[in-house]
Amino acid sequence: MPAPAPLAGPTAIRSANILTLQDASAEPGYAEQSNAQRAQVQPGNNAPVWRQVGQGVSGTVNMPYAEYGTLIQPTVQYPGTRAASAGEAWRQLRNQVLLPYGAALLLIVALALGLFYFTKGPLGQEHPPGQGQAIERFTPFERAAHWSNAAAFLTLALSGLVMAFGKFFLLPVLGSTLFGWLAYALKNLHNFVGPLYAVSLLVMIATFVKDNIANRADFQWLLRAGGMLGQGQLPSHRFNAGEKGIFWWAVTIPGLLLVASGLVLDKLVPGLDYFRADMQLAHMVHAALALLSCALIAGHIYMGTVGTRGAYRAMRTGYVEPGWAREHHELWYQDIQSGKIPARRSQSAPAKPRVPLSVNPVSRSNP
């Protein structure tokens, strides 16, 4: 069988020789060439593309916003960070400012509360039930508003803290797989509970704002640090200046800003353009206020549980003893005695025999 004849002339398949490439800038019309045209001169050379990316040249994208065609944002500089592209500057602010300083704040608050407890102990005296007609401090609706808002806040706080700091103390223990599933679940829980927190916050504000307006007694309370420096309990109305401060500066103002920034991050605001710079700003505001709120609410939780005798029972049952009211909120107690404020504001209050709201004088000094 005769051997096949060799092919005559060049084959139909041709490829560029990457070993004999010439300088692309020597090509005529180099500046006007597209990336596709330059790739014919220098196959595999992506430098022109990334050079344009670094210069902020916008491309064409099939996305909702034209800014998505610009891969690298303009250069900005936030306090405490070096000048960098907006995305990198946001990352630096989160990792080098918000997280370390936020963690330090929470640690300082925890240590301060622990030190205060072991040096001062719980504030106030014991007031066993049955020393007079119990006073209704919180109605069932007020307690429901408080506990629903508290449950939503604690859920958001714990899930947010895990997402922020979990990689430092949970990832080494759980491993990447379990921690990944946990973070994913908490992220979705965070997003769903956020709107519920918003509703409970509005109810909370509407319920308690009337009794949290500052008055003259509050300024006296602040000047003497609430009696925590040794003067004993100071007279106050239904809520003292410290409790009013928590209402305004830990619940209301940061809470509303947290809700607003959270709705932006969840993209739940109708008609809003979700540009990258706006999302980065919303995240920074959200994270900073969340850490501050956690620190302040930690103090509120302390005072409402182990820090003040009888405070937790008041929010759990709704009632306090006359002696407790006189010791901790003397002006409120006097208004009840004078008839300005009813001792029972709830229609469903349990029927009890009428007993005069008089108690033996108690010392307002701390034990």
UniProtKB/TrEMBL annotation:
It is a multi-pass membrane protein. Keywords: Cell membrane, Electron transport, Heme, Iron, Membrane, Metal-binding, Transmembrane, Transmembrane helix, Transport. Pfam families: Ni_hydr_CYTB. GO terms for biological process: anaerobic respiration; formate oxidation; respiratory electron transport chain. InterPro entries: Cyt_b561_bac/Ni-Hgenase, Di-haem_cyt_TM, FDH_cytochrome_b556_subunit, Formate_DH_gsu. SUPFAM superfamilies: Transmembrane di-heme cytochromes (SSF81342). This is Formate dehydrogenase subunit gamma. It comes from Malikia spinosa.
